User: Fold this.
Amino acid sequence: MSAGGFTFRSRTPIAWSYHRATARWQFNMGSATSPPVVVGREHGALPWTPLPPPAPFLGGLQEAIQERLSCRAFTPEPLSLAELAALLRFGYGVEQRSGPSMQDRPAPSGGGLYPLELTVLVRAVEGLEPGVHHYVPAANGLERMREGKLPPELLTYLFMGQPWVAEAAVTLVISFAGERSLTKYVDRGYRYALLEAGHVMQNVNLVAVALGLGSVNLGGFFDDELAGLLRIDPEKEVCLYGCALGRPAPESGRMALRDLGRAR
Assistant:
């Protein structure tokens, strides 16, 4: 017990209550029965864009880790569709290395349930209409949820005044479809989803560096309003994490992509 000063429990009682409520002891383990397979959020009848082979990396893993920095200034230049394909494929795509019945993915997932969804707010990508696009990993493509350019003022507002979001070529949003894992892990499954979102976003960050792109992760946003833009029901699927991505502007400073052979 703490004799005084800061404690998790006294300073942030809601966070503490959640943490303790999802702690596990021998008597509250539950059965953890595997749930039936729940399909992803894909609609199936929306405008569809198949993704091309991913763009090649321009540096190795060690270089990408050393170079990862947050970028808060982007140029107006678009991404290529192949670059977006690389970010999505190596962030949360599906590889079939273990047979047709297995989901082999770049990020680990509690129970192999993969309850996350990726949505892309597109400002400028060559060969892709501006708007809101949902990534379908199993089919390696994008379905368009909303068409039309998103107003910069709206994006800045949704992400709590962060101006670089409106400048980015794309903003990636990771959301959690609870039915796919809470059925098995109950409230503890939310912890697993937060961990999984972190795995996915680090993959995206490192891929961005390896492509010569800038990225900045976004934890601040208006949850329900962002969910409305994504056309998701916030009582069934919740936004967890965002990332603005684009070509770093010279004045960004923090994204000096030094000599990884990035001549274009």
